[in-house]
Structures are given as C-alpha cells and as structure tokens.
Amino acid sequence: AGFIGSPRMNFVTGEAARPWNAPTVGIRPEHLKLSRESGTWKGLVGVAEHLGSDTFLHVNVEGIGMMTVRAGGDFGVTHGDTVYLTPDDTRIHRFDDKGMAIR
Prior knowledge:
Largest sheet: 5 strands, antiparallel
Strand order of the largest sheet: 3-7-4-5-6
Order of helices and strands: EEEEEEEE
Number of strands: 8
C-alpha cells in the first residue's frame, strides 16, 4: 500500500501504532491534521514545500521518524518549526506483523 499514490503512505510501528491495535499502521499524507498548538504526535519540520494549492511538509516526529504531510493551501512554517500531527482515525490502515492488511 505504501507505493501506491504520491507522496507515499507513512508507516508507523511499535508504541505509536498501539492505539489502533496493530503492529503497524499506515496513514496517507493528506489524512494527517496539522497544527501548531496540539495533536497526537509532535515533530520538527525538516522541509516545507509551498506549492500554491498544497503545502508538503517532511516532519521528523519524535519516536516515529520522518513523516510526509499534505496540507491544503499555504501552511506557514519553515525548517525547524514545531508542528503537531493528528491522524484521521477513519482513514488509518492497519497491518499485522507480516504486512498483511487487518480488517
């Protein structure tokens, strides 16, 4: 599932995936809510690509690693800014320890 679509799906494992009762969860960049104040995961912006109708952020999330986020419009952040990410629970893809989808 990670290779379908552009940009690719983010994969989260271990403790960060536990709230969804799966060893691994996948979240597409457009299914992450972005905030400067609060959220499920905290991270630092590595790269911010402002593309007019979209902003793509590459965020180094504590305990998870690099995640790609797609925000609509111009989300005004730059390298080194702190942001918070919250996945849309209705759009989480769950995978077992063999990488097979869990229904």
